[in-house]
Amino acid sequence: MSSPVKDEQSDAMLEALIAKEILPQSGNWEGTEEFLNRVVQVLLKYIKDQNDRDQKILEFHHPDKMQMLIDLSIPEQPENLLKLVKSCEDVLRLGVRTGHPRFFNQISCGLDLVSMAGEWLTATANTNMFTYEIAPVFILMEKSVMTRMWEAVGWDPEKADGIFAPGGAIANLYAMNAARHQLWPRSKHLGMKDIPTLCCFTSEDESHYSIKSASAVLGIGADHCFNIPTDKNGKMIPEALEAKIIESKKEGLTPFFVCCTAGTTVYGAFDPLERVANICERHKLWFHVDAAWGGGMLLSPEHRYKLAGVERANSVTWNPHKLMGALLQCSACLFRQDGLLFQCNQASADYLFQQDKPYDVSYDTGDKAIQCGRHNDVFKLWLMWKSKGMEGYRQQINKLMDLSAYFTRRIKETEGFELIIENPEFLNICFWYVPSKIRNLEPAEIKARLEKIAPKIKAGMMQRGTTMVGYQPDKQRPNFFRMIISNQAITREDLDFLIKEIVDIGESLE
Amino acid sequence: MSSPVKDEQSDAMLEALIAKEILPQSGNWEGTEEFLNRVVQVLLKYIKDQNDRDQKILEFHHPDKMQMLIDLSIPEQPENLLKLVKSCEDVLRLGVRTGHPRFFNQISCGLDLVSMAGEWLTATANTNMFTYEIAPVFILMEKSVMTRMWEAVGWDPEKADGIFAPGGAIANLYAMNAARHQLWPRSKHLGMKDIPTLCCFTSEDESHYSIKSASAVLGIGADHCFNIPTDKNGKMIPEALEAKIIESKKEGLTPFFVCCTAGTTVYGAFDPLERVANICERHKLWFHVDAAWGGGMLLSPEHRYKLAGVERANSVTWNPHKLMGALLQCSACLFRQDGLLFQCNQASADYLFQQDKPYDVSYDTGDKAIQCGRHNDVFKLWLMWKSKGMEGYRQQINKLMDLSAYFTRRIKETEGFELIIENPEFLNICFWYVPSKIRNLEPAEIKARLEKIAPKIKAGMMQRGTTMVGYQPDKQRPNFFRMIISNQAITREDLDFLIKEIVDIGESLE
């Protein structure tokens, strides 16, 4: 660490400078380096603190209060570099430490530092993924990384295709759009009025809402996205799917797309891919697997059987920013068949994708994308994957699955906890905590009370700042917690801590 | 800089470590810090070199060769941290320095170091923009930054709305989707079959291809996006627009959306917003302004008149990653009227957007987005904007406009150069270079030869690695250069250099 004298000098230097007095507008390298080094110091301290379990996850403030704690306004005159460094400190101090080992709130948790270093480099290289011309290494890297992903899915990399999209919802939209294009290429030019009334299928509640949303955006209509009932473990019931397909045809609709989910958002359920693939073959439907969350399981030879049949999919969404722990955003939409993405999205913008360039323009990816500018999401994944190797991921995922089993056992044996799904098959564990005060009430009364228990416990956690875990209701059930074990930093002690904290807050409720 | 002895020690330390032996999986802070500091050293050296005009912009290699220069494969076993640092060096060495002051190739050029520092922090904070719960400061920051943008457009911030989207193409898609929803809300549920056959309008060639692409994706059909002729400066001809609107109605179509471009991609033209706004009012059409590139001009009181009438738009796309110089991606889609974005995209995912949280959930933005996970694109913009203030942007944009005028003058007075548009009104300057050897040929012959001149000069630049500028043909014209002056680092000398380099390479062609 720097000595106090040096810090004072540094403060004085940065206080005397504004942005246009450092690179790239001025040649002042010393000031440039000092500014960036100071920001890095702030970031390193944040990382260190975040990994200290005695530090809080957040200081909770309501929006009104928050606005008094930090000046978010855009000033008339430039602020000096020291003030910017202080702003960085403030923003981090008032934020939520999503990489804290006891933050279990989202599917994307944790902070892999190699991936983070990769994102720092990505920012510094600041290029756009549309052509080999301006992103030669990153374009080739996408292909190399996707090759590993295609292999993991079980496809022939020579024939497969794919693109990194800004998040799983857009990836699913890419897939549905390509499916429509393959079946009805003229819709690209003439729109939906010119083709039959399409409909698609995904599991009830359990599937991600982005399938319905893609249906709405694409002009198919959210109501033409049918929800197929699920079994008690949250898995799509294939018989119900086939019945609905047949029924929709009778009603004059044209089924075209089935989405199975591999790792549902709430329950972590895996739909029965083989059986759905059979149905899709029988009815000649596009088979999409939304493995945004569960895709990482393909890297574990021990657990990948849960996705058996995924190789029969026409398209797969797989978000490395979820189970693989890459930084947000990192989401791939993969296609078994090459060429379609280009045909579907190609817009022939001469000013971008000239054919008379001094290299093989088949490497240019711009015309495959719905986006024009496309962020480089691959480098942070590539660097992280190199840092672990295939073997490292295998271990990491197996370890998380072991922790999930451990947590489930602990929930089962701890008084007051009740699992929603008796034997979770993934890293989502859904449960209620029933405080002792209400345990002896009538079941209907308990259910009514439970609706308010999880929100109150959650509010307590946020006030204490010690841990965070999400909750939600479903159609039949009052609010329950959804625990997610995806941060590689998690230990058994962290899980024990969460259980203790829930009991502690839950028992203290009025 | 570190001494050689220290470097050797550092190398040895990092060579002995793999990722799981540092944070967050292990408590080894010394190794963690050393790794991150070494990566930062690599990045700082890159930044310093990039700003040194004697350094090359790129080492050009064809894809086959490139693949031999760097090992892009994903290994079975983890690679040690030293190897990762070396990989970072390799990737940067083999890439294109898009922040080099003589890289004029794209609309997004340059590397603002405050914005970059902001992106480093964003990566470190690694959160998701869907709720106040997990991104409290950043959610409020979006509102604060958008308030400045709404004001710049000329809207009442109390009534306006908006969202940061992954790039301008998706922002335009947001706008068109919202426009459809406002006019035909039932299309969200029932799709396009249930409503009239829609059509939309944008300028011929000059407009961004994403409007046609959005039309295709939304199920309206690319052929129902009509291209309106432009004048010799690349501006949409309002009379032609109105004629086409009337014609399309006669043909049984339902016009609903007009996109004006403020700063076209190739010529930098500004469509006549006031006149188009009148037509939209008359015909009750949604008026969208794609100011992805030109939006930054709103920050210059001297130049904002080019967008006069923008305040009458229903929606505006404005990409701070273009003229404002924020890092990719940073793109906003702004709406004059609050509420619509939510109605249009809301999917009511209970597991994300619970209403019984311990704070005012109206701050949660998730249900306004088509995406689910949404990258934090605002912090890098906010920090950069603070570093310049309103006054700094005013100066920066005025300076770029002055440089554009200077470059235009120099092109006019230098033998062999011919402007495509005599008086460019923005930061795009389009021109041919006619080598002396062919200057005396017949006009038709010159035109035929010119098609190959720009690609050859460009190839020469890439081989030399000294500068880069884009080229393309248009319907009537053979390949011409499109110069972009958007990097704040550009000086007059850089522009003189480009002219000299083009002459030098152009004259040496066979």
Task: Please supply descriptive tags for the structure shown above.
homodimer; 510 residues; alpha/beta; Aspartate Aminotransferase, domain 1; Aspartate Aminotransferase, domain 2; seven-stranded mixed beta sheet; 15 helices; 43% helix; PyrdxlP-dep_Trfase (chains A, B)
Protein described:
The structure is a homodimer of 510-residue chains. The first copy, chain A, folds into three domains: 4-97, Aspartate Aminotransferase, domain 1; 128-375, Aspartate Aminotransferase, domain 2, CATH 3.40.640.10; 385-508, Aspartate Aminotransferase, domain 1, CATH 3.90.1150. Chain A is 43% helix and 11% strand. Chain A is built from 15 helices and twelve strands. Chain A has helices spanning 4-15, 29-50, 63-69, 81-94, 113-125, 136-153, 168-183, 186-190, 210-217, 238-250, 273-283, 340-345, 379-413, 443-464, 492-508; strands at 103-104, 161-165, 198-203, 225-228, 254-261, 286-290, 315-318, 331-335, 417-419, 428-433, 468-472, 480-484. Chain A has a seven-stranded mixed sheet, with helices on both faces. Chain A is globular, with a radius of gyration of 25 Å. The interface between A and B is large, with 173 and 175 residues. Chains A, B: Homodimer. Chains A, B: One of its GO terms (molecular function) is glutamate decarboxylase activity. Chains A, B: InterPro entries: PyrdxlP-dep_de-COase, PyrdxlP-dep_Trfase, PyrdxlP-dep_Trfase_major.
